[in-house]
Design goal:
88 residues; three-stranded mixed sheet; 3 strands
């Protein structure tokens, strides 16, 4: 059974801004059920601090009562469709 994450459970604050670059969490989607796996679309996924990753896992575990269940969250960024176009 998929987890209904659209029920208003959100982190308390924004992620930290390493090197002054703000990380924007756009959305998360569940991609696996056993064990629960999620993909989080965000800017600068490589700069996401481990402490914020653990915070999100802890928040999900509390909100959806997943204590003792392995939880996988993968942070990825969307490809910019305008990055490879020639400048005119």
């Amino acid at each position: 059974m998929p987890i209904r994450a659209g029920s208003g459970h959100r982190p308390e604050g924004p992620p930290p801004a390493p090197q002054g670059r703000r990380i924007k969490l756009r959305y998360m989607t569940q991609v696996k059920q056993r064990p629960p796996g999620f993909i989080a679309m965000c800017s600068h996924p490589d700069d996401m601090p481990d402490s914020y990753r653990r915070y999100l896992e802890h928040t999900f575990r509390e909100a959806f009562k997943l204590q003792g269940t392995p939880l996988r969250i993968q942070f990825v960024t969307a490809k910019n469709p305008f990055a490879d176009k020639d400048k005119k």
